[in-house]
């Protein structure tokens, strides 16, 4: 039996979640975030519900969950009484959802890879999404479910990916390794969304943020907005200076936070924001991995996100 | 009525209003088709210009076209020889090719409207730079031309220095973009994602011949269809082999080549169910029609290509491993069964009706064989795993060595009907199939194996256990 790791064991995911909140704060004003209906797969802890309700006071919140035992934990963990704990799957939600004027934020945080149907139902939902709604999708880049020859599985897996997404290209082993799979999924998602919701002046789908990270599994997460060209332009202008924005389907940013001890983190943070990655590595003689340049690159990524990196401490109650 | 009045009643104007003319010309063509028209002109230029050696090899190696666009302008440039001044002077900028205009073998352009239609579709100002081996010139279609109903006749042209980068080629730069084009060409647009895929599909065979297309800096990669051919190294080999149906003929100046077969192993019932659920796999099945190397219809599974009538069943996921290619070639493009947008088949052409009968004959070989193996698809898996899949070029080459049988009638028709492997009739077995809740299947799987296995395995093991019990 497998339990999903908690957020505090997934540093990169935690950073990404903090960035999502920051994005919503920036959008607040253009979109009434607090009045939006929030729909998500909160898992047993409903952490995203707690954060969003805490930040914006959303009352209309719906949890999608298919396992009864998880729902029983949700009943204990739910941060407020207004959250509707359904036993619906994402596809149930997509099927039942009827477009209305209520502003909507949906996060499909898929745990297992089933790309074709996940991308397909995401596109189906985007087709009926309300104007100025926010849709976030998280896909797992695991490829072992595609099986293949145990000695060299990638070529056979690439054939299966081509079979699934032949309309979007012929994929090779090089497109689906741990480093490249998220970029590949991103291209596929973009092409699928483009085909499902072709641009018009009144309605288009654009990315606001997209990231890839690896807490043991490659993960791609993309936040999109649906709306008229002019309003999306306004938002894009607002987000232009935010370094974590990813507009117009540009390449996803990579979050790769090194695992630092509390002492290491404090030592590094004391030198920031002025010190460069090279300077920090040299000054603290902090070589995180075997190769010096790799250490510098890892530190660069830490510097990029350090304000959002959490530090978890054990608390005994 | 006075004499003065009589002098005035001489003629009446019949000039088309610009706005009407331009909107009528462009209303029924999609933006991507309009740009494909410009790409076709590049290929036609390459065919006009290529050396004798390349013509003999039917190669387009070394020729390229590059497309760049953003919210302000669209540019397409190529190294395909440029527009000869003679053609520019006589008809290249006219609205339609005049009667008797010279056509080079194997070109794609049909009615001589593509370039103008594409320009009008995208914008309201255009500069065409041509650098031909004999002349280099610039033709400007100014913004003012669109606003003046009386301004017909000529566009201004001037000599200019040949462009260094492309040596001999053409650059078309369109600005003052129309609203639709502005949205399409903007950053992150759906068009930016879909257009390269359309080019990859439509230009698959031209790219195979060496023609290169770059869109906003990215090279377009071809999407080839490959069909299973058992023992291609020994075409004369006899016996029941997994080979395609092949047909060839020549009606007047139109050469026809048809090939249909298995593009992958037969899907098992479980895979077919998955495919239906996720609506995939079948994407690459069906007929692809190629006219003078340009894909005009892709993976079609409708009545247009013979599915669902004349003894051929409707398409179903069961047939998702069947794919075919039909190739038409002619020096007179007008004789090809293609629509003017070059993105569809003109099914009313006699030649197409005739060829479609043969397409159906080939199709039936494979739908029947697929039915014969229904429920036993996995028995062929190991055989398919060892087989070779050939692309159109390789198939044509191999087909030359096959024993094609002559068909009576005109057009020098010949065909090869494969003898596909037969399923031995085992009437002592029946397929058992039923549906249960996934959660319940997983529970049973855990009970049986302490892990999650496929529903097929779970069902089979349950049956075997009870069979053992029954036999005790």
Explain briefly what this protein structure is:
The complex is a heterodimer of chains A (317) and B (472). Chain A is built from eleven helices and eight strands. Chain A is α/β, with parallel strands linked by helices.
What fraction of residues of chain A sit in β-strands? 15-25%
Helix content of chain A: 40-55%
Note the main sheet of chain A: 8 strands, mixed
Which CATH C-level class of the largest domain in chain A is it? Alpha Beta
Outline type of chain B: elongated
Span between termini of chain B: 118 Å
In this structure, how is the largest beta sheet of chain B organized? 8 strands, mixed
- Average pLDDT of chain B, rounded to a whole number, is 86
Global structural class of chain B: alpha+beta
Description:
The complex is a heterodimer of chains A (317) and B (472). Chain A has helices spanning 11-27, 47-56, 68-77, 90-96, 115-127, 154-165, 181-196, 229-239, 262-271, 277-284, 292-305, and strands at 37-40, 61-63, 83-85, 104-109, 133-140, 204-214, 218-227, 253-255. With 317 residues, chain A is α/β, with parallel strands linked by helices. Chain A folds into 2 domains: 7-255, 3-Layer(aba) Sandwich (Rossmann fold), CATH 3.40.50; 262-308, no CATH class. Chain A has an 8-stranded mixed beta sheet, sandwiched between helices. Chain B is an alpha+beta fold. Chain B has 16 helices and 17 strands. In chain B, the strands form 3 sheets. An 8-stranded mixed beta sheet of chain B has the order 5-4-3-6-2-1-7-8. In chain B, strand 12 (286-291) and strand 13 form a beta hairpin. In chain B, helix 2 (18-26) packs across helix 6, helix 3 (31-49) packs antiparallel against helix 6 (114-122) and helix 15 (438-449) crosses helix 16. Classes of the chains: A alpha/beta (317), B alpha+beta (472). At the A-B interface, helix 5, helix 6, helix 7 and strand 6 of A face helix 8 and helix 9 of B.
């Amino acid at each position: 039996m497998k339990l999903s790791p908690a957020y505090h064991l997934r540093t990169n995911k935690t950073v990404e979640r903090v960035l999502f909140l920051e994005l919503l704060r920036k959008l607040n004003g253009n979109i009434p975030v607090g009045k939006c209906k929030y729909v998500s797969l909160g898992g047993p802890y409903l952490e995203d519900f707690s954060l969003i309700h805490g930040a914006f006071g959303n009352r209309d919140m719906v949890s999608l969950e298919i396992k009864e035992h998880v729902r029983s934990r949700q009943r204990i963990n739910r941060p407020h009484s207004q959250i509707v704990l359904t036993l619906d799957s994402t596809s149930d939600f997509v099927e039942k959802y009827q477009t209305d004027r209520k502003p909507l934020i949906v996060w499909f945080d898929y745990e297992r890879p089933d790309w074709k149907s996940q991308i397909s139902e995401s596109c189906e939902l985007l087709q009926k999404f309300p104007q100025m709604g926010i849709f976030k999708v998280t896909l797992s880049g695991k490829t072992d479910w595609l099986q293949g020859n145990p000695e060299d599985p990638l070529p056979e897996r690439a054939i299966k990916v081509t079979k699934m997404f032949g309309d979007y290209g012929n994929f090779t082993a090089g497109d689906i390794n741990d480093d490249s799979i998220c970029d590949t999924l991103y291209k596929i998602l973009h092409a699928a969304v483009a085909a499902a919701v072709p641009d018009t002046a009144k309605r288009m789908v654009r990315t606001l943020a997209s990231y890839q990270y690896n807490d043991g599994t490659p993960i791609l997460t993309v936040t999109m907005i649906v709306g008229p060209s002019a309003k999306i332009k306004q938002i894009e202008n607002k987000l232009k200076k935010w370094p974590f924005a990813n507009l117009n389907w540009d390449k996803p940013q990579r979050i790769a936070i090194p695992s630092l001890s509390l002492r290491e983190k404090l030592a590094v943070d004391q030198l920031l924001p002025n010190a460069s990655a090279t300077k920090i590595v040299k000054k603290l003689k902090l070589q995180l991995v075997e190769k010096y340049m790799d250490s510098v690159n890892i530190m660069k990524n830490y510097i990029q996100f350090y304000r959002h990196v959490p530090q978890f401490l054990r608390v005994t109650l | 009525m006075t004499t003065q009045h009589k002098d005035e009643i001489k003629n009446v104007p019949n000039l088309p209003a610009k706005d009407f003319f331009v909107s009528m010309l462009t209303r029924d063509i999609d933006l991507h088709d309009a740009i494909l028209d410009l790409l076709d002109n590049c290929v036609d230029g390459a065919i006009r210009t290529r050396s004798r050696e390349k013509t003999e090899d039917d190669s387009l190696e070394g020729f390229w076209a590059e497309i760049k666009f953003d919210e302000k302008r669209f540019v397409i440039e190529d190294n395909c020889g440029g527009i000869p001044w003679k053609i520019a002077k006589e008809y290249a900028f006219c609205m339609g090719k005049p009667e008797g205009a010279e056509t080079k073998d194997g070109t794609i352009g049909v009615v001589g409207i593509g370039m103008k239609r594409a320009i009008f579709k995208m914008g309201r100002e255009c500069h065409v730079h041509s650098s031909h081996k004999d002349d280099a010139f610039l033709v400007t279609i100014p913004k003012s031309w669109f606003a003046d109903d009386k301004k017909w006749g000529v566009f201004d042209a001037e000599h200019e220095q040949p462009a260094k980068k492309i040596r001999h080629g053409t650059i078309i730069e369109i600005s003052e973009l129309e609203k639709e084009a502005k949205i399409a060409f903007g950053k992150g647009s759906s068009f930016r994602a879909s257009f390269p895929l359309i080019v990859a599909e439509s230009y698959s065979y031209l790219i195979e011949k060496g023609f290169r297309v770059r869109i906003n800096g990215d090279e377009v990669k071809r999407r080839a269809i490959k069909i299973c051919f058992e023992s291609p190294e020994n075409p004369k080999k006899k016996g029941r082999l997994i080979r395609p149906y092949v047909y060839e003929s020549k009606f007047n100046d139109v050469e026809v080549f048809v090939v249909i077969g298995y593009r992958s192993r037969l899907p098992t019932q479980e895979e077919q169910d998955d495919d239906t659920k996720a609506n995939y796999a079948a994407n690459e099945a069906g007929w692809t029609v190629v006219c003078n190397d340009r894909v005009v219809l892709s993976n079609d599974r409708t009545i247009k290509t013979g599915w669902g009538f004349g003894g051929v069943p409707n398409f179903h996921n069961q047939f998702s491993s069947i794919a075919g290619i039909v190739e038409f070639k002619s020096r007179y493009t007008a004789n090809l069964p293609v629509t003017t947008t070059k993105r569809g088949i003109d099914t009313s052409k006699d030649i197409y009706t005739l060829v479609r009968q043969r397409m159906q004959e080939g199709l039936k070989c494979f739908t029947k064989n697929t039915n014969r193996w229904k429920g036993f698809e996995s028995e062929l898996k190991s055989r398919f795993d060892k087989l070779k899949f050939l692309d159109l070029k390789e198939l044509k080459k191999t087909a030359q060595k096959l024993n094609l049988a002559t068909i009576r009638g005109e057009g020098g028709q010949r065909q090869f009907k494969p003898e596909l492997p037969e399923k031995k009739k085992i009437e002592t077995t029946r397929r058992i199939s039923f549906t249960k809740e996934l959660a319940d299947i997983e529970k049973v799987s855990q009970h049986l194996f302490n892990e999650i296995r496929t529903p097929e395995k779970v069902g089979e093991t349950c049956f075997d256990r009870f069979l053992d019990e029954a036999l005790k």
